[in-house]
Amino acid sequence: MCIIFFKFDPRPASKNAYRLILAANRDESYHRPSKLADFWGNNNEILSGELVTNFLTTDMDSLSYLKKVSQEGHLYNGFNLIAADLSTAKGDVVCYYGNRGDPKPIVLTPGTYGLSNALLETPWRKLCFGKQLFLEVVEQSQALPKDALVAQLLDVLNNEEAQLPDPAIEDQGQEYIQPILSKYAAVCVRCPDYGTRTNTIILVDANGQVTFTERSMLDKDPSRWETNTHEFMLQS
C-alpha cells in the first residue's frame, strides 16, 4: 500500500508559486532490503530510488513511454505509473497509466490528484481525507518558508487516523486486510512488520529549482528516521 498526492501548474501566476508539489509514502515490509534515493547514472544526472529506471534512462517523452508500456500492460499484475516531462523551455507535461483501467495512457490537466492501491483518483476514504489535508497545505504554499512547507507535508503523510468504514478497501483483499484494517485505512500505515517506510516530498518552483526531501526509516525501527534533502535545477 502506497499513497501519492500531487498538484501541478505548468504556468504558475506568481514567482513564489510551485509548478509541482508532490507528497508520497512508500509502504512495504520493514525487512525488505532497500536503498535511499541518490544520484546515479553516467554523469550522476538521475535522482531516484529502485524503480522506473527504463523511463529515466530513455530519450522518450513521458506519453510515448507510457504508450509503449501500455502495449504490454496486460502481461503484468496491477500497477500504476505517473511520468512527467518538466521543462522550463517546452512546458510541463504529466501523464498517467494504470493497467487495470483505460487501455491507453492519459495526459493530465493541471490540478490536484491522489493515487493509492487502485486507479488514479479512486475515492477511497483515506485518499479523499489525505487529499483534503494536502490541499489545505498547498493553499498556503506561497506564504510558507520552504522548510515549513516540507514539514507540513510530512505531517500529512504521517497521519495515522483510520478512515473507516470503507467497503472499497475491505473488498480489495479481505483475507489479509481485515486483521489490520484500522491501520491499513490510514494515510500512514503502521503495523508491527509492515507499513510506511519512506516519505518523499518533491517541490519544483517557477524557475525550475527542485527540492527533493526523503525521510526514511532506519534499521526496520519505526521510531528511528533519517531525512535527506537534494536541491538542483531542472535541465532545459
UniProtKB/TrEMBL annotation:
GO BP, sorted A to Z: Golgi organization; protein secretion
Superkingdom as given in the UniProt entry: Eukaryota
A Pfam family that the UniProt record links to this protein: TANGO2
Gene Ontology cellular component terms for the protein in this record: Golgi apparatus
PANTHER family for this protein: SER/THR-RICH PROTEIN T10 IN DGCR REGION, TRANSPORT AND GOLGI ORGANIZATION PROTEIN 2 HOMOLOG
Name of the featured protein: Transport and Golgi organization protein 2 homolog isoform X2
Lineage, top ranks: Eukaryota, Metazoa, Chordata, Craniata, Vertebrata
Gene it is expressed from: Tango2
